[in-house]
Structure formats: C-alpha cells, structure tokens
Amino acid sequence: MPEYHVIPNEEEVKRLKKEYGLTKDQITEDVAMVRSWMLTQPHLPKFPESKNDEIDFWIEGFLRLTKNNLEKTKTAVDSHFRLKTLFPQVYDVRDLPNYVESDLFEYLTMVMLPKHTPDGLKIMYYHFSDRNSHLFRPIEIYKRMRLMLDIYQRKGIDFTGIHVLIDTRHLTLSHISQFDLFQLKNLIKHAQKAYPLRLKHTHILFPPSFIDVAKNILKPFLSKKMFARLSFHKNLETLWEHIPRDVLPIEYGGYNGNLDVVREEWKTLILKNNDWFLSNVSYKSDESKRPKKKKSSTYEKISFKTLILD
User: Fold this and answer.
1) 118, 137, 169, 274: which could form a disulfide with 206 (CB 3.0–4.6 Å)?
2) In whole angstroms, what is the distance from residue 225 CA to residue 295 CA?
3) What Rg value do the Cα atoms of the chain yield, rounded?
4) pTM here?
5) Beta strands 108-112 and 122-128, pairing class
C-alpha cells in the first residue's frame, strides 16, 4: 500500500527548525548536553552503544516539542521513562500483530490525520465503531495515543500542537461510566510532561443528548482554560470554521482522502515498528533510585491546570 501519511513532513520539519532556531550545530550541542545529563541520573536507563544514533534523534524530537528548551526537554525525557514505569499497561506491546487485527483495536478508531493545518498543527481523531460498549477499554485510548506519538518521535517530530476531534455519535453513558477519573487525572499529570504537546482545541462532533451530564462529571477534573478550548459541533459546518476542509477526510466533508485508508496506514505503521517497540519496552525508570527532591516550604497544588495549552 502506498504511503498515505508522510512521517515526517520535511517541509514542516524545516519550518520548526527555523522557527525554534534549531541549527545543525545547535542540535548537536543540545543533544550532547541532554545525553550527559541523562548519565548523571541514577534512575534513568542505560543504553547500549548500538542505540546512540536512535537516542540522539529521539532527544532532538523532544527539543522540537519543547521549542528548543533544554530544561523542558530534560523534564520530558525523565517523565517519559517514569510514565513507562507507572503505567506499564499503556506500553504493553507483547503481541502487536494480533492486537492490530483484534476486535478491540477495530472498535476504537484513533489516528493522526495526514495533513497539517495552516498554522502547523495536526489533528488527532477518534470515534467508536458502534454504541455497544462491551469492547471499550479506557486504557485503549491512552495506549493508541502513545503508539502514534512514539512513532512520530522515532520518525521525526513535524508538529508541536494538536486539535483533538472526537466523533461522539456512538458515545453512551456506559462508555463514560468506565472511566476512572482519578487514574485519568494521574495519567494526564505525567503524560503532559512526557509528551509536551500543546492542546489547541478539543472538538466534540455530534454531541449526545446527555453531554451536559458528562460535562458535569468531568468539570471538577478540568481547568477553566481547558473548558474554554472545548467546542461542540452539531453539524460539520461549524467544525469547518475551526479546521479547514482540505485537512479533513471525505467522511467529514473534507478533501484529504478516505478515513479507512488512514486507519490502514496506521495499522501498517504500528506493525512496521513492532521490533522497535519490543526493543525499547524494558527501558524505563527505576523509581527506587530517583534522587530525593528537597522539601519545599510552599505547598504546590497539582491539578489539571498544569496541562500545556497554547
């Protein structure tokens, strides 16, 4: 099957490098600094020499995601390995070939759409195949999201922000009831650092009649800014006001290919990277060796308000 997604889009990579001042010499210098820092952290994994080039490119991806901020890059690297330790179920890759052909995988469509918006953002899209929730597992959302982001991290980061587009026409209260909100809050707290993307907007397409109930359940866990970046679309016309039609697939009135082709391309990409996922699953943090932080006299409240929004 011909490549439908272009990972990375070289023009977008060049744009990011220029925008963030990522010259070849600067990248080499910054990557070396992060690598040196990693070696001083007793809780971080040690890598064989055979992975040197891979790790350097991986760090470069974080430099793009953090707008060439060294301290944020260090935080992202640290958080990535910690997330793997705290949430191993999100990083389960024991049998990806059978997983991508399973009913569980087919039930949830989650993809990054091929094209960028004019301001360089990507669209993360998902929906359920029907209203029957017996195949729904909340952990599947997180797992699929990280599989895609890790593939971008390996192939080349060509975006730093996303729109999230959720088609909720098959969403039921049974789906909502399966979420462990405290687990969700804890996962987001760590994931927002491990994958420092800027969430521009979340679009809820075809909201169900009980959407106000769902909003009231989630409200205590979400910041005011996050709610301000939440839009509900009863029709496609209002969606097009936010996302150009040439970025959307034909199923949503767009001009950018067929959603089924995008789904198959992501399945292909996951399978092509199976060996790579397996070779990296054991690299995680050893929290027993993490240096103790100095106690602060100021109590810092951790909440969803720390989610990176731009």
Assistant:
1) 169
2) 30
3) 20
4) 0.88
5) antiparallel
